Amino acid sequence: MNKNKNNNKIAEEPKKITEFQLKELQEIVNRINTAQLNLGQSESQKYALLQGIQGLQKQLLEKQKSLQEEYGDVNIDIQDGSITPRQNEQANT
Known about the structure:
mainly alpha
């Protein structure tokens, strides 16, 4: 009979983890999910910013073309707007 009692104890192993253990696991998984969500949002923001920069660079090129048509091949000081003739690059070499 002793052998049957030992076999019954083995068969009666817990089928669930404790509530505390479950809460710990759920908390860790939730923190991972939150971190992944935040990372995805950051990547989306990064993509939007990169697209915005590309748009602004395109606007700058268009403005530079427009100014070159109006003033010729000159340097424009971005601080005060003054115009100076562009020096021939071959003269500098």
